[in-house]
Amino acid sequence: MENSEFNPKITFSDRLRIWFKWFLDPVAGFFNHIGLTPNTMTLMGLVGNFVAAWFVATGRMSTGGLIMLITTPFDALDGTMARLRGDASDWGAFVDSVTDRYTELAILGGLSYYFATTGDWLSAVVTFAAAAGTVLVSYVKARAEAVGFTAKVGFLTRVERYLVLGPLLLFNRPIWAVWFIAIFANFTALQRIFFVRAQAHARKNAPPEDAGTQQ
Fold it and tell me: pLDDT digit string (tens) for 12-55?
């Protein structure tokens, strides 16, 4: 049974796609026109973020942050390109989501390596907590949808994390970035857990759909 009280809200990511549709559609159309495919864009974003992670791991935070800021927006273009080509599919959305996790974990893995090799073990542990939070935000949503709930809510979703991590790396403030993400990504995961819990209680306490037809 569906309850309108728990319909997914429009996220910040959704709003950005609406606000910048005037820009994304022509750029995506251009890349389609020159023969690039959505999967190519996804791969370019993935490779770019792994390159950024290498710079981060070697202590060149500003360079890594700049590369991350340049390549991560390909994530928005691949979906738009697929839509314009009429090729949007569940498989494409699945691959895009999995790739997003790899790109985030690559950057955070680079940070964890850097902190560990420089002896900053506290920051290394905090980076692990940040990575755990980013995975849990996605995992809670996936598991909720698998059992018929929604969890498209939360303070620090994918786009917000990008807008925190990229600029702070660019300005060489990696410790600020990992602390912020460690706290608020896990907070977002808890937000989603309690959101699903409320739906579960509403479902449990709802009257049977055929109760009104019984004599």
Answer: 666 666 777 777 788 888 888 888 888 888 888 899 999 999 99
100 annotated active-site: yes
Write down the pTM of the prediction.
Answer: 0.84
Distance of CA 96 to the CA centre of its chain: 10
CB 27 within 8 A of CB 49: no
Query: Which candidate in 75, 90, 100, 120 is catalytic?
Result: 100
Distance CA 115, CA 129 (A): 14
- If phi over 0 gives left and psi between -120 and 50 gives alpha, with beta otherwise, what is residue 148? left
Q: What is the mean pLDDT of the chain?
A: 86
Both structure tokens of 106: 């690559």
Q: Which CATH class is domain 4-205?
A: mainly alpha
Question: Which letter does DSSP use for residue 156 in this model?
Answer: S
